[in-house]
Amino acid sequence: MRTPLPRTLIWLAIASAFALPGSAVHAQQAPTDAPAPDSAAQAAEPAAPAQEAPPAVTTSGASSATEEATTVVRISGSRIVARGFTQPTPTTSLTTADLEKAAKPNLFNTLAELPALQGSTGRTTSTNSTSNGIQGLSSLSLRGLGTIRTLTLLDGQRVVGANVTGVTDVSQFPQLLVKRVDVVTGGASASYGSDAVGGVVNFVTDKKFTGFKANVQGGMTKYDDDKGGTLQAAWGSGFLNDRFHIAVSGEFTKENGIDSPGFGEVGPNGRTWYKNPAYSVRPLAQTNDGLPQYRVIQHAQQYQYAKYGLITSGPLQGTAFGPGGQPFPFQYGSNGVPDGRGGVSGCVNPFCIGGDLSGSVGAGTNLAMNFKRQVAYTRMSWDINPDNEIYFTANFAQVASNFSPNPGAAKNANLTVQCSNPFLPASIVAACAQNNITSFQYGTANAIFPANINVHPTRTQRRFVLGADGKFNFLGKEWSYDAYATHGENKTNIDVHDITLNARYNAAIDAVRGPDGRIVCRNPVAAASGCVPLNIIGDNPIDPAAWAYIAPSQGPRQRTTQSQDVASFNLNGEVFEGWAGPIALATGAEYRREKYRVRGDAYGAGVAPESPNNDYYPADPLLNTVVGNNWYAGNYHNGEGSYNVREAYVELNIPVLKSDTWGEANINIADRETKYSTAGKVRSWKLGASWQTPIDGLRLRGVTSQDVRAPNLSELYAAPVVVNNIVQYQGNTISVQERTVGNTALRPEIARNNSFGIVLNQPKWAPGFSISADYFDIKVKGVISALTAQQEVDLCVAGNQEICSAMVLNSPGSNYVTLQNFNLASLHTKGIDIETAYRTPLAKLGLPGRFTFRALGTRMLHAITESGVVGTIAVDGAGSNLGNTPKWKVLAQQTWEHDKLSLSLTERWISDGTYRNDFIECQTNCPVSTLIHPTIYDNKMKGAAYLDIGGSWNFSRQLQAYFKIDNVTDRDPEAAPQTNASFGINPALYDVVGRAYRVGLRYTY
User: Fold this and answer.
1) What is the rounded average pLDDT of the residues 588-592?
2) Fewer Cβ atoms within 10 A, N terminus or C terminus of the chain?
């Protein structure tokens, strides 16, 4: 429902500015030498630390917080630029000095450590997925609300998405020329448009960089892996009496990643912490015995397959196969004994504890992707006169990664092997006859495969901006403007190698002996189309011809092209003098068009490929050419779509108080009207206030806003994605296809964002000290979301017929669950941000140098998700350490600087938590477990503390050497159990790489 509150208050506030007596106090003019913003785009940058946050750690070459306080402030939480304006929206700034102290090969890694950023994706996340499309993306998420609800800008401008969800890839940004990154931790849709529900992250570049600088860095881990290097260089100069300015930069980063060790309970390269953690989950019907339904176990071993094959049901259940196909009794663990019906006594489906762990695949997932980024950037500008310029920027970037999601291709007891299979040893054939059976169920990890599945995403960006900015006088007032048009393209290529076609695999393993004595494929159609028999009975070298047949050299592939066109105009100035200071106005309009087109391969998409690709994907009568979905994973489908946005906004800053007795106060109001070609009209607004109290250094701030996120291209026009998964159904683990499709009827999400803060900034009694605390409360309604496959299955079992219509579960080999987005869910996040800093020279203590302390912390009070589906309850993720919102996330740094030497300590801490907050913890006398109130034996998941050490030495004013050691104590990640798998880590919260060393040189001239 649209509320008229903001517009009413705009006029009331304007009226009050003139109704109150105003002749007693006049606005203080900014110093005449204070540098004004050189463009409206720069005016959109976040506040300097002295205004909106405790002072950032700075070097001697940077302005101190006190010096910055005398300038006109440039702010990104607001588009207003005015004398004395202090915005109500909290903003945290990281300066060049902060970024350099972190000494990361990618600025993304530095930002992701900030407490307010929770749920960001990088090269250590999604390494266990083939098809989710976000692998290798460096995307930021505020408040755990997701990357799609965080707006990431470059110099206040949108950047073309690197994924069909619309999220940007920070790795594609020019990073060496970034002089500051500002994080606006509050809703900013009224100022900047859609997606700014959690806030805004703005990368601010040095637009007039002059000189030359370079950075060379290399590093590796304690385990002699993830070796990498970074090379960056930038040059800038002015010509024609400095009227023409050009800056260029080039960057290259290579990180070799951490490869999987393969099968078994073995961590990569000597990491000993991996213990195959998992949930042991009893059926609900068995929980009336007073014992919990869930237990967290280690050394979890699937009993539905073995490394080289296992008979999983019938009279021969428990027979495994080893070298040369020789049978042997499988060691189940948990003293388990097969029951001949697919179950194992002493074990809980699908895991036993201990036993033969050689076929485990969890440790086979890469801990970190092999990663390469290349970026070239230039900015050229021409000063029409001292107050106005036109400019052009171009950015070319390519980010490539590759990784293995898992070894082999596990088949969970879903294979049928005929007793007539000629690859079976004679003893098994005889046992079949003795037990009067003609076939048996079979599971295997397929460890005979010569290579692991490997995924290669490559994203290539081209982005161009043509703009003008400056200032002019109108009716005796100075106005600034910023106008630009941008075109961006991102092409994403995903190629998957060494992966099998399901139908060909099934045909190849079903072998018979032909009339001439040769072993052939049983299916005559398959045999006529090139089928080569495959022996999966035991550890035998795989026939290269059979491998080429089931895993062709040209595997799944996806080709996506996205484009973004933006035209924007912004105007900023002081309208007139109010009784307490200048009333400032920012207004503007923007047009944006987003579109995408994606094409999958013929075997995945089910559509015959266009020429000349027919040679790569020849026709095969075994493969489904209508719906596709023929690959083991990576079934990419075709899709396309577009939408456009027209919007206009107005923002006002109205000083309402300026008094020696009562201090200074202002009201900040914004309203934005937006029309989406797909989702229709939507409105966002903001109402905030800031009061500089008469108490020395004390300021209060508060803001309430309505923010929006419109459905993105992926949600509207998603190319159907099909992935393999397993679900629990009627006490069994079954394999299903997850089929995800789009929904063009989606509406925008509507968020209500409230915050209130207290800032104490360098009072006279504590010079150099600042602290702020901000309470935030964000409610998002109509959240676009889909249930998981397991949730849908559970709801179907509980009787939800609408959900049941989206799946088939009783057709082995053809089971599927359809996942689709709806405006069903809601989110409610609230917590407290705390930031403090202290900077002081040590001379008064008789010590050399200067000391700086800075700490940031976020206390999550709630992170509630409600699915909106009958039969489910709201789940609070705050403190669930399997997610990305711990109760506490803290980052602290202490730095000592003296002449040429600088040393710093950094502490990173996440608090202890739970596995899930909806669990009921109990050991005995447990209530009967239910879907919405499951019971668990132990629901405690430890947090983690990390210590980093860094330092630098200045050989001269131009040359600096530096080092950094992350995770000095080599703190292991906590076990992260899952229900149906044993991946076992949570890289969203925990360091999974271990101790890492980096050294480098910086040169500035």
Assistant:
1) 97
2) N
